From TrEMBL:
The chain crosses the membrane at residues 17-38, 50-71, 83-107, 127-145, 152-177, 232-252, 258-280. Residues 373-425 form the PAC domain. It comes from Cyclobacterium qasimii M12-11B. It comes from the Bacteria. Its EC number is 2.7.13.3. Keywords: Kinase, Membrane, Phosphoprotein, Transferase, Transmembrane, Transmembrane helix. The keyword Secreted does not apply. This is histidine kinase. GO terms for molecular function: phosphorelay sensor kinase activity. It catalyses: ATP + protein L-histidine = ADP + protein N-phospho-L-histidine. InterPro entries: HATPase_C_sf, HATPase_dom, His_kinase_dom, HisK_dim/P_dom, HisK_dim/P_sf, PAC, PAS, PAS-assoc_C.
Length: 658
């Protein structure tokens, strides 16, 4: 049977059909014995010379039930399964005991009386009894497929199939009962066929069975068996049948028949063997050719792979004692040692002293456990210089899971590590500068404010209590001093506010519509006094720092109100659109506008474009806005023309914030 056909067979469905056949036939024979219908006891009793005994029908019936339980996986019937299989063994053992005169009980005619057989009526043949024992052992072995008893069960089914096949061949070759061996004399063709079907079905179901492996295996032995089996079975049976018929019909003599049998069988067998061998040789030749092509391709790809690895990585091999057995050119170039200096040495040659001993202990514990170790190592070259490598050390194992050698693959990362060290130095310096700024902020908020408050208090005191002692110039001087100190205090406060922008680290979801509503409430007096109109389009909710975003919008709205045209009511429009990285906000006004040369200058800290007496302020509001936008990963700019109003635009990144 070709392997492709066998694999397409639905064995479960076939087994179900045969179980039904076993049950029907066995029940038919049982009924035949009860009602005395001789024709139900054998296919052609006269030719075969044997009938299926009542106990044999019981064996077939029990075998069908056992196959049904096994196929349906009825675990709750496991106990019944064992009992039924044991009954098969019991029936066979008792029958063999009766043949040997050792039985303590007779079961030949326990249910019905055999009136058809002259010799040992009701008794199964020895072959049938042995098959009954073997089937019982085989069915019990099905319960333990992974144990030694499972292998014994497979052997029992195989033996049953062989005995049944011998019985079938005896029938095909028309061997009369008198000429059969005593083992098969009373074994019917019905029994032989049913035993063969039961045993082969069980062998087909088990992937560990020899029959399954031969029919499905891809090895040469299985292929050869599939090719030779037909000739070994069909040709001898056909030729033997023709020989026997010729002798019975007196067409040929026995001597001539034997000579002719040998003369025909041997050449035909040789010819078939030659054709089979030639077919296998052709298959093997194609396999070898394919293997050579595969080896050639693998050699080429491995060579190219090695060349590629050698160009970008340092590679070394070590034996189980960690002694280097091979290094590539890149390894020698990086370490500055020659190949001869490395081979026979260990990696300790490159020890820089940077890593503690525990580092290497843990590294080798990982590798020797069979795991790949990956990490960074600082080594020392031959000239005394230090270098860093990113290394993977791979343990190789044999088929017994034992480590045979180690491979080290490394890449030089010295430049990256030096850059990281520079970055760390920069970070440390930056942290130091930040501490200095924090100290400055403390001084500005306490030490600098204190003398300013003293000056303001004393000038107020002089103005109130000693004003009559000053002339007009003195009073103006006091006024200038007061204004200057107040402005100085405002500048310091604005500088502190600018420095504190980064301190708001609470990222929250901010509804910009509610944020603008709150600002309008805070600026309600200024809005009312200037008759300002603020139009707010639908704004999004964004992840950001709420207090700084409030300051951003408030500064832009305040500036739009402050820098208004005389005689024109301020009109402010706030909107937002989606862009590629987040949201783009616009704050548009109808104020005095900004000349093109000042569009960048306005964002510089303490820069004011207008007269301080006309427009109050510290000149730091738009600097606050730029820093806040930078904090949110965006940018800010202005689109404006002098006397035509301005549109301040800024972006807020949502990636990383939402």
């Amino acid at each position: 049977m070709p392997i492709s056909i066998f694999k397409k067979l639905n064995l479960d469905k076939i087994e179900k059909i045969f179980i039904s056949i076993f049950l029907v036939l066995s029940l038919g024979v049982i009924i035949g014995w009860f009602v005395g219908i001789y024709e139900l006891l054998g296919i052609t009793p006269e030719a075969a010379g044997a009938t299926m005994k009542f106990n044999t029908a019981i064996i077939i019936l029990l075998s069908g039930v056992l196959m049904f339980i096994c196929r349906e996986k009825k675990t709750r019937f496991r106990g019944i399964y064992k009992i039924l299989a044991s009954i098969l063994i019991f029936i066979g053992v008792i029958t063999i005991g009766e043949y040997l005169g050792m039985s303590f009980i007779s079961i030949d005619n326990i249910f019905v009386t055999d009136v058809f057989s002259k010799s040992n009526p009701g008794r199964m043949s020895p072959a049938t009894a042995i098959c009954s024992i073997l089937l019982g052992i085989g069915f019990l072995g099905n319960l333990y497929p992974d144990r030694i008893f499972g292998k014994i069960g497979l052997l029992a089914f195989t033996s049953t199939a062989i005995l049944a096949l011998v019985g079938i061949i005896s029938f095909i070759l028309l061997i009369p009962m008198a000429n059969k061996t005593s083992l098969f004399q009373t074994m019917s063709i019905n029994t032989s066929i049913l035993f063969l079907l039961i045993s082969t079905l069980q062998l087909f179901k088990n992937q560990n069975s020899p029959i399954y492996q031969i029919l499905t295996g891809d090895f040469e032995g299985s292929k050869l068996a599939r090719k030779i089996f037909p000739s070994l079975i069909i040709f001898p049976i056909v030729s033997s049948y023709l020989l026997i018929v010729g002798i019975h019909q007196n067409i040929i003599t026995i001597d001539f028949g034997l000579v002719a049998y040998a003369a025909i069988f041997i050449p035909v067998g040789i010819i078939y063997l030659i054709f089979t061998a030639l077919g296998l040789n052709k298959t093997d030749e194609e396999r070898q050719k394919l293997a050579m092509e595969l080896q050639k391709n693998n050699s080429y790809y491995l060579k190219r792979f090695k060349e590629g690895v050698d160009q970008v990585s340092s590679v070394s091999l070590m034996d189980t004692n960690k002694v280097i057995t091979y290094v590539n050119d890149s390894f020698c170039k990086t370490t500055q040692y020659s190949r001869e200096e490395h081979v026979g040495n260990t990696l300790e040659l490159l020890d820089s002293g940077h890593h503690q001993e525990q580092f290497f202990i843990q590294m080798w514990e990982t590798i020797e456990s069979g795991e790949i170790w990956v990490g960074e190592i600082k080594n020392k070259a031959k000239d005394g210089s230090f270098y860093w490598v990113f290394t993977a050390i791979i343990p190789f194992k044999n088929d017994k899971d034992k480590i045979t050698e180690y491979m080290s693959i490394s890449q030089d990362i010295t430049e990256r590590k030096e850059a990281e060290e520079l970055k760390m130095d920069y970070v440390k310096k930056l942290e130091y500068k930040n501490k200095e700024l924090e100290q400055f902020a403390y001084v500005a908020s306490h030490d600098l404010q204190e003398p300013l408050r003293t000056v303001i208090n004393y000038t107020d005191l002089l103005t109130k209590r000693r004003a009559e002692h000053f002339d007009e110039l003195g009073l103006k001087s006091l006024q200038f001093i007061q204004e200057a100190t107040v402005r100085m205090s405002q500048l310091i406060k604005s500088l502190l506010d600018y420095n504190r922008i980064d301190n708001d680290n609470n990222l929250t979801l901010v509804d910009c519509n509610e944020l603008i509503n709150g600002i309008e409430i805070e600026l309600s007096k200024e809005i009312k006094d200037t008759e300002t109109t603020i139009i707010v389009e639908k704004l999004p909710s964004i992840n950001g720092y709420e207090s700084t975003l409030r300051m951003l919008f408030q500064n832009l709205i305040t500036n739009a109100i402050k820098f208004r045209k005389e005689g024109i009511k301020p009109l402010i429009t706030i909107s937002a659109i989606r862009d590629g990285i987040g949201w783009e906000f616009s704050v548009k006004d109808n104020g005095i506008g900004i000349s093109s040369e000042h569009k960048e200058k306005i964002f510089v800290i303490f820069q004011q474009l207008h007269n301080k007496n006309k427009y109050e302020g510290s000149g730091i509001g738009l600097s606050h806005c730029r820093k806040i936008v930078d904090l949110h990963g965006g940018k800010i700019w202005v689109e404006s023309k002098l006397n035509e109003g301005s549109i301040f635009k800024f972006t807020i990144r949502t990636k990383g914030h939402e």
